[in-house]
Amino acid sequence: MHLMRLALLLTALAAALGLAAITTQTPRPQPASAPSADFSAERAMADVRVMARSPRPVGSTDHALVQAYLYGRMTQLGLSPTLQAGALSPAAVKRIEDRGETVEGLSVVNLIGVLPGRNPALPVVVLMAHYDSVPGSPGAADDASGVAAVLEAVRAIKARGPAERGLVVLLSDGEELNLDGARAFFSEHPLRHRVGAVVNLEARGGGGRAMMFETGPGNAQTIDLYAEAARRAQGGPSSNALAVFVYRLMPNGTDFTLAADRGLAGVNLAFIGRPAQYHSPSSTPDALDQGSLQHIGAQALETADALLRAPALPKATRNAVYADVFGLAVLRHGPEAGWGLLGLALLLTGFAAWGARHATGLTWRQGVKGFTGGLWLLGTGVVVAQAARVLAGPVGDRIDSSEIYYMMLRRLPWMEAGVGLAVLGAMLALMAGRALIGRRLLAGVVAAAAVLATVMGGFNPVVLWAAGIAVALSLWPGGEDETVWGGWLGAIVLVLILGVLVQAFAPEAALLFVWTGLAAAFAAALAAVIGARLERWAALAPAVVATVVVGGWLAGLGHFIFLGVGMDQPGALGLIALLILALARPLAPSRRDATGAADPAVHTLAGLAAAVLILGCGLSMAAGHAEPASAVDVTAP
């Protein structure tokens, strides 16, 4: 039985990772022979190749050539384009002067075209992307891909026949300087008063699935429309409320930010994979992932078309709690529904605890030990994640130049692999048993990781608090969660308590805890019905299925979280590890055999935990050799 559990655990974790890898792939690019009403990446690539032959910063010859080319393309599409000049902002002027260039006679110039609707009295939809690039980068992804996708989407919309409302195509200028083109349009252009919704396309990298990561305020109706529209796109929807919530807290901005600040409905789409291509000379048409172009373009086409043909545009109501599930559909509900789901999860947890108590004699003390085991993993995960991260290079305020920032972006895939393995090692160590590995040894490893993270990464109060909790729990005599049910239910209760706290203050972000906690509680309740002693294959099946399906969803979500914030907040993967623990905990082999001796399967798991942790640190250290500082070849925006 012990070897069976170990095999189930490793197989379920591997299957979850495989599911995440498969479902985070980009869709197949559609050929030029695709139906005229569909989006085709191959057709869009013709525009990308013309635009991204060389860098096109504002004021350059190539910028003017691309502007003329796009004017011609918009004319071919029947958009009757016009030019709108706008002044440079002080921040844009400073950026240009910092490069040693003159700003005399410079301005941003937007290209604006209109596809009229049948009813000119209706509010219009804006479909936009920016056509300038940073110096030193051809910008095939950022944002030639967005412009090309807009043009291909317009062609497909025309092929579908007239819509009731009009479409405004805005190819903005100066986004890389200070969003100056979009600022000029939304502040000065006569059409600004008629805008009812906006679809924007961006990129921060050269590949990966395109995510809808920003909306206007009160987005429930917008999410309903996006969820139905994106299901028709190749690759399906890719978005969640957590991404929208987190992005609002970040200092970043795109052209869409100006529209959202004015209360307009709409969506902001971008892909952020292959981060080495961001603002880099390597961002060429040949290097661009055409699957990413297909995904962002298809989502933009279907969303814009749905807005154009909708009886009424979305209005600001409340923010939805939602997430896509493997790109197949978008599950969504109102913020207040989270309380009901938490209540259901607590009832299921209570039922599982009742069944476990009658079958195994489970005590509340065993549940408390499981709870503290989850706390130990959360604290240890944050610490080892930060330690593995700093082995790859500077972090936080120590990234003090754009050159270092772009170098670290090139190292991001190494960081993700290193941090992910380090956190996995901590989770496997918990499952093997802290007493078996050695309480003092684990406390020493956590303390050493905290020192390393502080010396190389600087003072971080979150890391130090996490280290203090993890060290104290490591040294706590008798604090081991020795029973399967105690460990499992304790982890679920911790997840649900975190869910209650987040639900109270940020319900949009609570879906991670609420949905995972509900899935884990349901698996536990079902296991209690099938066989509360957890001695049969069938009794472990709910945990296996939950680990593979929900764990795969969490792993895929963790990938996008790390791409977004992992450079500065790698400890986010420690939270993902805790959530997976709440699903997979009963699959760990029992600590003792019938004679009371440590089972060989547990020794195997402990050895695997150490190997995985060491490998993760090694991969992070290898980032410096794979992407050395001397190879920096990017230019500041």
TrEMBL record:
- Tell me where the transmembrane regions lie: 337-356, 368-392, 412-430, 437-456, 462-478, 485-506, 512-532, 539-565, 571-588, 600-623
Q: Which Pfam families match?
A: Peptidase_M28 (PF04389)
* Keyword match Cytoplasm: no
Q: Please indicate if the UniProt record lists Protease as a keyword.
A: no
Output the lineage of the source organism.
Bacteria, Pseudomonadati, Pseudomonadota, Alphaproteobacteria, Caulobacterales
| Domain of life of the native organism | Bacteria
Q: Which residues form the Peptidase M28 domain?
A: 110-303
Identification of the protein by name: Peptidase M28 domain-containing protein
Q: Which organism is it from?
A: Brevundimonas intermedia
Q: Where is the signal peptide?
A: 1-20
Q: Which UniProt keywords apply?
A: Membrane, Signal, Transmembrane, Transmembrane helix
